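General statements about sequence and structure are easier to judge against a single worked case. Part of our work consisted of pairing the sequence of a single chain with a tokenised description of its backbone. The amino acid sequence and the backbone structure tokens for this protein are reproduced below.

***
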Amino acid sequence: MAGRMIPIHPSHPYESSASSSMRPMRPHVMLFTDPLGINALQLHALARALLLAMPEAAFSFLGEINILFSLPQEGGVQLPVTCVISDAFTWIAESVPAEKVPLWIVFHCGFPLAIWAHVYAELFFLQLWNGRRCCKTAASQELLGYIPKLKNIRVCDLPDGILFGHNNAFHVKNMGKILTNADVVIVPSVQDFLDQNSFRSIGIKRGLPIGPLDLLSPVPPNSSNREDCLGWLDIQPALSVVYVCFGCHSNNTLPPAEHTNVALGLEDSRTPFLWSIKQEHRPYLPEGFEERTRDIGMLVSSAPHKSVLDHPAVALFVGFSGWKEVLQCLLAAVPILCRPLNGEERMVSRVVHDIWCVGVTFDGPIQRWWFSIAIEGIMRGAQGDQMRKSVHKYRIMTMGAMMAGGSLSNNFEHLLKIIRMEEETI
């Protein structure tokens, strides 16, 4: 697939008829998710955005590559696939022959700068591992200054697969090949801070930051918890509540001791809080915590995440620094208290804390006293005021870039033209 160009010939993107007239082929986009389905919801959101903009196109959402050969039919005729969009972890999509699918787009739904870590993975392995079973510099504070886009990232911020060589190592290294072999790479981004020359410098043919999916494909607010959750927020003062949520994926679970320290830190700070915590994690809370904090806090099993972040009472989000969460916080203009746990979360939290200055990060396990001090500093100190100014600035920049004529809006238009075969990938 490397170096592929979109073929332009009579059978594509036009179909021949008996009268020798030419009519455009209906775009048929096939989407493949990662094997575990972790990013399936984001791929669905991308499909919704494309469907709204391209009602004439057909879309298939599949999880197995062999289904490519059992294609949908239109009028009894098999509808050819004109474009495959795959999650960056779906390495098997690389095996689809170019003659079968003329356009391959990779959707990297994670942190855009993590692309550089994946592309340079082999170099990192050579420099950091030196044949050892465990990376000897995994805790190194050394900056990666020899890679321009990562010059503010430390060695210890790199993804787990590079630092520790566990099962994700294969995916980390293989993703670099996938990204450079694809015709187009698209990334959700808060602003177009990665220009085309940056992508080409690492071998990516065409890179398109397309903006946050929450703006491209908005979903109606979930009101299922309105009475229990949003109703409680309605009676809280503006910018008074800490919203705590450590996600729902089993591979991203806060250790029991840290659940305890979060609870004690919240109690020490005497700050109103809303904590979305699964029932199976409640035994980790200190005895009597719910009773002692009943007047200032609320525990729920789940919460309408976006609606909570958008609520005027919420002043701070506490959670893992997943890229999707960070994007949602930036759009809601809510500072972030990050506890990176694995994957690319350390890279994201580094940018949140030291570059964008829109949050604070824990470099290790959450400690009770540190957590309480961090909350007080952000909620009631000058540090929090500055963070709110910074996060508001990024929100304004992103909203402007998503408007007609903005950089992110233009990139999405380029994507539509590429899928319709109206524009070449390079």
Remarks:
- The chain has 16 helices and 16 strands.
- The first strand starts at residue 14 and ends at 16.
- The domain at 226-380 is CATH 3.40.50.2000 (Rossmann fold).
